[in-house]
């Protein structure tokens, strides 16, 4: 059976660097599972830390980043298809595939084998969607549905979830084929466990560095390239708050403060999602630092 190694954890915990080191040792390549790194030109804000991919002067290949323009639509169903294509490419080269990221919905679509079927308003999928913030539900609905017939679909939480279930059901036939492939995967899931206080320190330091690297200028360039403010706000976090600042909707100090708080909350929501995955049967092998030393024996046992 084909094998998949997954590295997950909250934002800023060092997933990419660890994965690159493990790929170097275990002849692997990375499949990104970060919902904003799919888009070109969104580098600093989405955390495309290319330097983390360089190990022993060798750049570890990474798939599913820079595959779309910011104006393009993308959804979980499309991600499943792209994941399978990337996995086949890596597997056919006799290498090990590492699924790496923190985007819970996309991780679950692979690890929990999401299959889009006829809309069932009483299914467990409703419980899964209820774990998302309303803003995240709106983002997901806009991604998968090009036809929104009623503006209240974007206002009332219950209507948003129903609209998502209907939109997802449109891909039933092809989803069955994807599900058959994903069900054959054997997955080792490694989660990076980081102290919350330390996580906040790392997040704050990283955010400060990204401002120094030109994150505000990056958003300015995207606006200048014709990406609408609403579209940039749609991506959330850095792109949402910096866009609001550039539109003079909030001050610089307010932007930085609100953004930092939003990233803290995002990290908490990620961990909530991962814990829910565990309750639903996904075995996550949580490891503490030093990550490499603790992850290596798990992978050695997994791949034999």
Identify the notable features of this structure and list them briefly.
304 residues, alpha/beta, Rossmann fold, six-stranded parallel sheet, 54% helix, globular
What does this structure look like?
With 304 residues, this protein is α/β, with parallel strands linked by helices. The protein has one domain (3-113, 183-303): P-loop containing nucleotide triphosphate hydrolases (Rossmann fold). The chain is 54% helix and 11% strand. The strands form 2 sheets. It has a 6-stranded parallel beta sheet, with helices on both faces. A hairpin with a 2-residue loop joins strand 3 (54-55) and strand 4. Residues 149-153 have low confidence and may be disordered.
List the helices and strands and how they pair.
Blueprint: E1 3-8, H1 15-26, E2 28-33, E3 54-55, E4 58-59, E5 62-63, H2 76-92, E6 96-101, H3 104-111, H4 124-130, H5 134-144, H6 157-168, H7 172-182, E7 186-192, H8 196-213, H9 215-224, H10 229-234, H11 237-246, H12 252-279, E8 285-287, H13 291-303
What's a concise summary of this model?
This protein has helices spanning 15-26, 76-92, 104-111, 124-130, 134-144, 157-168, 172-182, 196-213, 215-224, 229-234, 237-246, 252-279, 291-303, and strands spanning 3-8, 28-33, 54-55, 58-59, 62-63, 96-101, 186-192, 285-287.
CATH architecture: 3-Layer(aba) Sandwich
Show unreliable segments: 149-153
Largest sheet: 6 strands, parallel
CATH topology grouping: Rossmann fold
| Number of H/I helices | 13
How far is the N terminus from the C terminus? 13 Å
- Helical fraction: 40-55%
| SSE pattern, N- to C-terminal | EHEEEEHEHHHHHEHHHHHEH
Q: Averaged pLDDT, please?
A: 91
How many strand units?
A: 8
- State the CATH superfamily name: P-loop containing nucleotide triphosphate hydrolases
Tell me, briefly, the overall form: globular
Strand order of the largest sheet: 5-2-6-1-7-8
From the alpha-carbon coordinates, what is the Rg to the nearest angstrom?
19 Å
Any idea how many domains? 1
């Amino acid at each position: 059976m084909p094998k998949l190694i997954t590295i997950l954890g909250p934002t800023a915990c060092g997933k990419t660097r660890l994965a690159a080191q493990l790929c170097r040792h275990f002849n692997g390549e990375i499949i990104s599972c970060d919902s904003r790194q799919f888009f070109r030109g969104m580098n600093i804000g989405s955390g495309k830390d290319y330097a983390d991919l360089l190990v022993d002067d060798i750049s570890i290949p990474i798939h599913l980043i820079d595959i779309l323009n910011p104006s393009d639509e993308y959804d979980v169903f499309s991600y499943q298809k792209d994941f399978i294509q990337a996995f086949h490419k890596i597997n056919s080269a006799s290498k090990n595939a590492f699924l790496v990221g923190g985007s819970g919905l996309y991780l679950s679509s692979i690890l929990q084998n999401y299959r889009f079927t006829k809309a069932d308003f009483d299914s467990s999928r409703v419980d899964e969607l209820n774990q998302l913030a309303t803003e995240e539900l709106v983002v997901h609905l806009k991604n998968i549905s090009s036809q929104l017939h009623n503006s209240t679909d974007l206002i009332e939480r219950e209507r948003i979830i129903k609209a998502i279930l209907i939109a997802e059901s449109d891909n039933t036939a092809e989803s069955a084929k994807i599900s058959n492939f994903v069900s054959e995967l054997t997955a080792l899931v490694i989660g990076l466990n980081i102290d919350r206080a330390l996580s906040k320190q790392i997040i704050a330091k990283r955010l400060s560095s990204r401002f120094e690297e030109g994150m505000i200028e990056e958003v300015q360039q995207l606006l200048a390239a014709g990406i609408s403010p609403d579209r940039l706000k749609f991506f959330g976090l850095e792109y949402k708050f910096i866009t609001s600042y550039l539109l003079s909707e909030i001050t610089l100090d307010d932007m930085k403060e609100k953004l930092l708080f939003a990233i803290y909350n995002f990290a908490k929501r990620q961990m909530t999602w991962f814990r829910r995955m565990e309750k639903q049967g996904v075995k996550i092998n949580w490891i503490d630092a030093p990550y490499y030393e603790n992850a290596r024996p798990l992978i050695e046992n997994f791949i034999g």
